[in-house]
Amino acid sequence: MQTLKIPVEQLREGPIEIEVDMDPRELELEDEDYRFTGRVRGNLVFSIVGQDVFAAGNLSVPVEGKCVRCLEPASTEVETPVNETWIRGAGPQETPEASDIEAIVNTYVGDFIEPAGVMRELILATLPDRLYCREDCAGLCPGCGANLNNEPCRCAPEKREEISGSTANADWKQKLKGLNQK
Ligand SMILES: [Zn+2]
Ligand SMILES: [Zn+2]
Description:
By secondary structure, this protein is an alpha+beta fold. The protein has two domains: 6-125, no CATH class; 138-182, no CATH class. Helix content is 21%, strand content 31%. It contains four helices and eight strands; from the N terminus they run ββββββαββααα. The protein has helices at 96-102, 116-125, 157-163, 167-181, and strands at 6-7, 16-22, 35-36, 40-49, 52-66, 73-88, 106-108, 112-113. Strands 2, 3, 4, 5, 6 and 7 form a six-stranded mixed beta sheet that branches. A two-stranded antiparallel sheet has the order 1-8. The chain is rod-shaped, with a radius of gyration of 27 Å. Bound molecules: zinc ion (ZN) (2 copies). One zinc ion binds next to loops. One zinc ion is lined by residues 67, 69-70, 72, 132-133, 137.
């Protein structure tokens, strides 16, 4: 992982602005459902109040996954707002109380903030739950599996009616036909 280091003491002279332009691999970005197809870009401003370091800004990265309706490739730009706090940690011998705090904010030890791990977690947390190739994707026919965006359903007409949920209606018509014939 590329070490992005923010010198804490230097922050006392004023905020440090970082122009982010990183390869997803430098942040070890990996996900089961998504491929990171471009660079992570954005802008982060680090500042310090007392011993607490703050980072505010935005990150964005293009991803590709599968459309949940038609299973074809779909892509989007993941936008990740950053609003993080680091408090000075007590080092390796942290008390249990300190690690409770760690669950809410980040801790740092020494003279530098290394935000890469936090950036990674934030990006992974903002990946979309589901992706569509386009808003009105027609999806796959549950009967024949045809991709209804670019091919017609190949189901037999009876089967097609069954799938569209008109089975009851068809039965009723059938019965009526029977009555008329008597
Ligand atoms: Zn689709
Ligand atoms: Zn079909």
